[in-house]
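Summary for the steering committee. One of the milestones for this cycle was to obtain a three-dimensional model of the protein with adenosine monophosphate bound, which we needed before selecting residues for the alanine scan. The sequence and ligand used are listed below.
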Amino acid sequence: LRFGSLILLLSVFFAFTVGCSLSPIEETRYLMGTQVSITVYDYDRDKLSSNQLGTVVDSAFREIARVENFAHRNNLRNMNNWAGTQPAFLGNELISLIDHAYSLSLDTYGTFRPDLGPLVSLWGVGTDSARIPLYWEIEDKLELISETIFTVEDTIMGRLDPFGASLDLGGVAKGYAVDRACLVLKDLGITAGMVWAGGDLKVFGRKPDHEPWRVAVRHPRDPEKFAAVLELYEDAAVATSGDYERYFEIDEGRYHHIIDPGTGYPAINSISATVVADLCTDADAYATAFFVLGPEAAIQLAATFDLPTMVMEERQGEIIELETSSFRRLRASDESAMVQ
Ligand code: AMP
Ligand code: MG
């Protein structure tokens, strides 16, 4: 009889878990210049019914489109266009994001800089006007950037000086969009989910199968391989900056989209940098900064901030990889295991 009740208990448990489980719902759209995927693994049945999940996912995508507009166009674009002449309305949210970007700049010895706009446009990587600038053009822009000042006026207005200065939030905007999309999903009743935007990703909640999140980091040179597979047991963001994301090639030289603010040229110390943090906004900015710093300096700095980090470089055709011990601890014991 005891055996019988155990079987019964087990089958009830089985029916319960099967009844509650949901095969993940995934949707991909093209936003912020990249593929963006949202996956829902579980949701609060008191708040939502399964036929509302599509609308919730749609709201999260709309949030990403909102961030794309406010971080790359509209008010920010006005402030850039009016640099040296007049302030522009920015609003609290954009001002907080810019302030946060400046504080991340301080934390990273200025290797991440929100005011690199003039150099980003000069190189034009990823646009039709991409080209190798002349030496004096780069010197000119470096001087302009060193003189750039951002000031907040009347708490909601922002002003840039001098004329020609411009902010470029490309190094944090995707991460911020991922954070925001996760907040929207959680607010609307999603209890386990993942948002992935190009190199930036965030996972939250507990999957119904109680397995850890498995996150694969792309290998910068071999699309068939992964540079790492991480096993995450808690909410976390993972961002990767790579020289393979956006670049142009001339005479076998690769000119990619991450600029070293020290030289004005694409950073040459790394081919890929991956950072794990709580906020995807931070992971995104640190990944860009650590890419510029290169493996040795980046790993040292990452260790002081307690940020699990991996940086790869290519020396004479050989790929060298450095990582913090905290990153090593996140690696899956069986890296060939199924990847999601
Ligand atoms: P990510 O792909 O996150 O590394 O960000 C790269 C984007 O950030 C570029 O496309 C530029 O818009 C901008 N960017 C390039 N270099 C830097 C830098 N050193 N600091 C901050 N933003 C940068
Ligand atoms: Mg970044």
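Key point for the committee: Confidence is low (pLDDT under 50) at residues 1-19.
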